[in-house]
Amino acid sequence: MKGPLKRLAGRRAGPNRPEWGTLDRDLDRLSLLEAGAMHQSRPLLMAGVALAFIVLAMLLAAGLTGQGPSSIAVVAAAALGAYMALNIGANDVANNMGPAVGAGALPMAGAIALAAVFESAGALIAGHDVIETVSRGILDPGVVSSVASFPLAMIAALLGAALWVNLATWLRAPVSTTQAVVGGMLGAGGAAAGLGAVQWQTLGLIAGGWVLSPLMGALTAAGILGFVRWRILYVPDKIAAARRWVPVLLGVMAAAFTAYLLQKAPPWFLSASLSQPVTVALGLAVGLVAWLVAIPVIGRQSRGLENRRSALKPLFRLPLICAAALLSFAHGANDVANAVAPLAALVEAQRAGGLEAVVPLPLWVTLIGAGGISMGLILFGPRLIRLVGREITRLNPPRAFCIALAAAVTVLLASSLGLPVSSTHVTIGGVFGVGFYREWVSRLNDRRADKAAREKAEGRTFPLEERRRRRLVRRSHFMTIIAAWLVTLPAAGLVSALAFTVLDLLG
């Protein structure tokens, strides 16, 4: 029984006054029935709010694009772009906030509010990036721009990608929305212009990045956690070690985020793009300042703490919250294009009468993407946030901080190398990396120490198998997520190709 229903049902267990007992019991039954009806109607209410947002996006597109056949296609694409943005908010944003919620650094409501603000800010402030139409060069613009059914292909691509992400969210599988959009573009564009329009070399590079993303995230997160255990958590004087090394980790995090955000800086902030050495130098400078500032702050926070591992958790909470906020900002700046890239391509094609290799995001298109991501997070995000933060493996603030730091470092490194990666794959890979690293350490300890003696020394009261089960990565979630990753691109492509075929026949 859910929370409000349980509380209402529990009232009847209290003492009853004779003169009001019958009335109280009747009122309790009515209140319980009303709470149950409200709980059952919540999904319908959330669907209604999402539908209202989609209708609002359609009205906005209709008001700004005028009338005509091409405007009808833009309005339809606006509806599907809003639908895709809702799905991104429901699925993708969980990767940024899940570790913070699972570690107890943020309550669910606080995480949703923080993510909504920073996702929207990232989309509106830094989501200016010129996006290569047809999802980063997957299709040859010279081929698809000459195809009369190109607007229909963009609508089908959005529809296929959004339907697949929606299904993955329902199955509680965090997937890459970038991968879904690329698959949708590939399927619909290929159905419209033929497989000759596909730029297979670019597709191979992107697919390679998707394979490497979770591995890089897992290895980096495991390596950082190993360092934290080696230099902070498992030393005789844990407080002194924390005062020395936690500021260093904060400096590394600040340097990584600064360098990455400078790469994404909007034109009004930087008149010209910075070279890689300059970006690295500025990131290191900010990291140095953050390290110096963090030294006295961590020193004050560590006063009076006991010299044990659990006492160090508060030192990682604020850095973890800052990391989650910055990850959300970077995600909003990057993934807003996943929701509205086809819509922007249609708007540009309508305005210029053709399609260029790159397409800017108009402000109203960005607003649809940013608003949809935030709305989807608020309405449907908690389910996957709980999965990522609590159900894959057990997290606490130090482990969650290692995941966030690993995600920042991995994405920055991949961007510097020109390797396209998925932030979803990196973060989830980090969660798995932390879980499997702890499992590996646990098995080493099992082989090195006498089980019964260790249980007595640590005060454990539950059996060894139960301890192991509590520490391991849940294999069911692992297999579900890996399977969803493998089938996302072909599934979205097939759905989009089918959608284009049906729409083309109907048209």
From TrEMBL:
Gene Ontology CC annotations of this record: membrane
Underlying gene: cysP
Classification via Pfam families: PHO4 (PF01384)
Example GO molecular function: phosphate transmembrane transporter activity
Top-rank taxon: Bacteria
Membrane topology: Multi-pass membrane protein
Protein family per UniProt: Belongs to the inorganic phosphate transporter (PiT) (TC 2.A.20) family.
Chain intervals with Basic residues compositional bias: 1-10
Region (Disordered): 1-20
Annotated TM spans: 44-64, 70-88, 100-127, 147-168, 180-200, 206-230, 242-262, 274-294, 315-333, 361-380, 400-419, 425-441, 478-503
Protein name listed in UniProt: Phosphate transporter
Subcellular location: Membrane
Biological process terms in GO annotation: phosphate ion transmembrane transport
Transport as UniProt keyword: yes
Keywords, alphabetical: Membrane, Phosphate transport, Transmembrane, Transmembrane helix, Transport
